[in-house]
Amino acid sequence: MRIRNWDEYQESYKLSVEQPEKFWDNIAKTFKWKKPYDKVLDWNFEKPDVKWFENGKLNITENCLDRHVETQPDKTAIIWEPNDPNDEGIKWTYRELHEQVCKFANVLKNNNVKKGDRVCLYMPMVPQLAVAVLACARIGAIHSVVFAGFSAQSLADRINDAKCKVVVTSDGAFRGQKEIPIKDIVDEGVSKCECVEKVIVYKRTEQFIRLENDRDVWWHDEMEKVDADCPAEEMDSEDMLFILYTSGSTGKPKGVVHTCGGYMVYTYYSFVNVFQYEENDVYWCTADIGWITGHSYIVYGPLLAGATTLMFEGVPTWPDAGRFWDICDKYQVNQFYTAPTAIRSLMSKGLEPVARYSLNSLKVIGSVGEPINEEAWRWYNTYIGKEKCPLVDTWWQTETGGILISPIPDVTELRPTYATYPLPGVQPVLLDKDGNEIKENNVEGLLCMKYPWPSILRTLYGDHERCRTVYFSTFKNHYFTGDGARRDAKGRYRIIGRVDDVINVSGHRMGTAEVENAINEHPWVVESAVVGFPHDIKGQGIYAYIICDRHVHSEQAFKDEINETVRKEIGPIAKPDIIQVVSGLPKTRSGKIMRRILRKVASGDISNLGDTSTLLNPDVVEEIIENSPMVKK
Ligand code: PRX
């Protein structure tokens, strides 16, 4: 199963394309099934309707936990490093994690959660979040983890969309020097949700909170009432495992749905190969469980492989910019997986914080979430990987469930800034805008997949038609990723970035329409247009052009209010970096905003703006250029 050299890669790849069902059957049959599947794959990209391991019955937690409790009960499953380096961490063995999960699963049952019910998890990076995720899976409840940096309004929208019955949260959260009042945000959010019956609160910061009678209960009180015996619910391969909301090019977030069987097989297979995890290794992914990276490569993938997975509560720059490297040395981390934005931010702090640590234990270093620029790639490779650890630039999406394109350490050839080759079972193609496949190498095109892999999304929660139109209707019989890519002479892929109205800020996906909707909530705003622009640390920054219905006396005060509005509507991650008040937006005669022009101005490049004379309001372009802080005068 684990690919060890180039010949094996080629052999596996060939088999996966020529006999995909045989290829995946070989992998899937190594898992614990309550009842074997009848058929490996049934698919139709037109509808879309994709079924993997049909009629197989399983519970993913038996594969994450029970299996390992039988063979390696005392192996460390989760290491938790708290925000404050002077506080004590946690190490749970597989036996201990199993016990916690079964107990919390019984807590959920006691709070009336049944198979198929949705449970929202809004928590900081504490190991109890992993427990809550697995406890849902144990009883067949569908988890919807919402990143605890989202605002009360965003939380409410996600809870209502999935009609979650229970919310699991904490009193507060520690992030660097900040203490965040998580429960207050939940109170405000849940006040807008009629579906919520119970809120279970984990005590983390011990800050004062208000418990609402009949609705709120403490995690620790509930855990006292239950035992650790909780049989795993029998799930169909195609039963929903979780919903995870992500941004699209229109306003409303999309609830990406993953199912039990295929997600299990693919996250395991990709984890083992991309990170080349060995028996006693310590693996660390710095993502938050609120994003897909945390779901697939902190919780499910590593636990399915019986690995030791490290969870970190804090931030990379507190108490200082050496924190990541301190943790690597402290736990002798072997595989380290982070985002380019973190690398760029640490790079800007110089080499001193790195030089304090040996980093000798590292074997593989990884990157995810956005294109990694060459300078960051080289810095990461030289100073962290010491030019001896393969750097895996892993390309994938919330919708793909797992890594699709990535180097395999010591197996496939690296190239800086390239995600390189598809993993076995993954069939990428580049299409031109008319949908013709570009077969040659040394080309650029729109990145699509022409064949399903086991962890492809199945639907968008409550909106299958949107799933079809967004991903499967642009090009017939293809899954469209929304990314543009380049393929070099050796067939290696480099992801260029989104080709739709989605921007990637510090590895977080943001719909421009979503940010515009938030800005437009401010009573003075007539209209706004949001675009991305190149940002040294964040990859892309948010640039907002705003038309205001009155003369603003203090532009700074107005901008502060806009930022506050966005923070309230979405969360701090969506706050614009640059706000420009404009008298109009460049529009075509049919009223469409010419975003291309706005993007160019935002990047400080005013060459080749094209013919602006046909616009409805050509003068406004001059004004925008004149007042843009990005254009050098
Ligand atoms: O544009 C691609 C970018 O992130 C998008 C997916 O975002 P999300 O669903 O939030 O998942 C992020 C973590 C898997 C993609 O469409 N992206 C992700 N990984 C890379 C990347 N861009 C370039 N290189 C990558 N390695």
What does this structure look like?
It is globular, with a radius of gyration of 24 Å. The model has no long low-confidence stretch (mean pLDDT 96). The termini are far apart. It is an alpha/beta fold and 633 residues long. It has an eight-stranded mixed beta sheet, with helices on both faces. A seven-stranded mixed beta sheet has the order 5-4-17-16-18-19-20, sandwiched between helices. A four-stranded antiparallel beta sheet has the order 21-22-24-25. Helix 9 crosses helix 10. Among the domains are: 60-72 and 81-233, Rossmann fold; 275-393, Rossmann fold (3-Layer(aba) Sandwich); 503-627, GMP Synthetase, Chain A, domain 3. The chain contains 19 helices and 30 strands. A hairpin with an 8-residue loop joins strand 4 (76-81) and strand 5 (90-93). It is 32% helix and 24% strand. It binds adenosine-5'-monophosphate-propyl ester.
